[in-house]
């Protein structure tokens, strides 16, 4: 469990663990919970789902994407313990190679997103961040409640969600691994987020 959580957040995580055990995709998977500042932090970062490194260590964003996120935080002048980091889906979505039996990552299924989204929204209600930074399209759609929302249209712009908090969508840190042309766009978005932060 992340340090500093209030009892209500701990209860939420316990409830999520019990319910996740009933979901076939989660039955034998390790839950990776959020971590960081739970006392109304300026920022909450929300990713898509944990990968292999995250599942192994039980912490969000510790693999290659985690290094990219750390670089983002450095550019923002933030430390991990000042913010909260979590994922939409709290288990690693996997597929198995029929020939080798090896597991690899896959996008979250509709069932996984539908199951975990209400827990994420409740997590945010309890933490009460000033600004939510979604990383990638899955988290963006879950937070806005709009399955047609696209990161390509909304990235790098401040929006408001139901009067509850500010939203600042970013490309997922892993996006630059697969598309290096996005690096410049992502750097500009981070500079804009830093300007937004100065006003919070």
Number of helices: 8
Termini gap? 28 Å
Question: Largest sheet, if any?
Answer: 6 strands, mixed
Structural classification: alpha/beta
Name the poorly predicted regions: none
Q: Roughly how much helix do the residues carry, as a percent range? A: 40-55%
Mean pLDDT: 89
Fraction in beta strands: 5-15%
According to CATH, what is the topology?
A: Uracil-DNA Glycosylase, subunit E
Report Rg: 16 Å
E-strand count:
8
CATH class: Alpha Beta
Task: Summarize the model shown.
This protein is α/β, with parallel strands linked by helices and 200 residues long. The chain has one domain (7-198): Uracil-DNA Glycosylase, subunit E (3-Layer(aba) Sandwich).
Can you walk through the features of this model?
With 200 residues, this protein is an alpha/beta fold. It has one domain (7-198): Uracil-DNA Glycosylase, subunit E (3-Layer(aba) Sandwich). 42% of the residues lie in helices and 14% in strands. It contains eight helices and eight strands, in the order αββααβββαβααββαα. It has helices at residues 7-20, 52-57, 64-76, 110-127, 137-144, 151-154, 175-178, 182-198; strands at 35-36, 43-47, 84-87, 94-96, 103-105, 131-134, 159-161, 165-167. The chain has a six-stranded mixed sheet with strand order 1-3-2-6-8-7. A two-stranded antiparallel sheet has the order 4-5. A hairpin with a 3-residue loop joins strand 7 (159-161) and strand 8. Helix 1 (7-20) packs antiparallel against helix 4 (110-127). The longest helix is centred in the middle third of the chain and has 18 residues, at 110-127. It is globular, with a radius of gyration of 16 Å. The mean pLDDT is 89.
């Amino acid at each position: 469990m992340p340090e500093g959580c209030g009892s209500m957040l701990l209860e939420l995580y316990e409830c999520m663990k019990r319910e996740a055990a009933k979901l076939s995709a989660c039955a034998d998977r390790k839950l990776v919970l959020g971590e960081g500042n739970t006392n109304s932090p300026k920022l909450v970062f929300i990713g898509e789902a944990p990968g292999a490194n995250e599942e192994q260590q039980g912490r969000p964003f510790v693999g290659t994407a985690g290094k990219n996120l750390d670089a983002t935080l450095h550019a923002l002048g933030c430390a991990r313990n000042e913010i909260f980091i979590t994922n939409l889906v709290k288990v690693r979505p996997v597929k198995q190679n029929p020939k080798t039996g090896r597991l690899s990552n896959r996008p979250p299924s509709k069932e996984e997103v539908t199951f975990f989204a209400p827990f994420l929204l409740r997590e945010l209600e309890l933490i009460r961040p000033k600004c939510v930074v979604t990383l990638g399209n899955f988290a963006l759609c879950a937070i806005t409640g709009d399955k047609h929302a696209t990161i390509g249209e909304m990235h790098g712009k401040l929006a408001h969600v139901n009067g509850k908090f500010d939203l600042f969508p970013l490309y997922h840190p892993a996006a630059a691994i697969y598309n290096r042309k996005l690096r410049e766009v992502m750097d500009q978005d981070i500079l804009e987020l830093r300007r937004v932060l100065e006003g919070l």
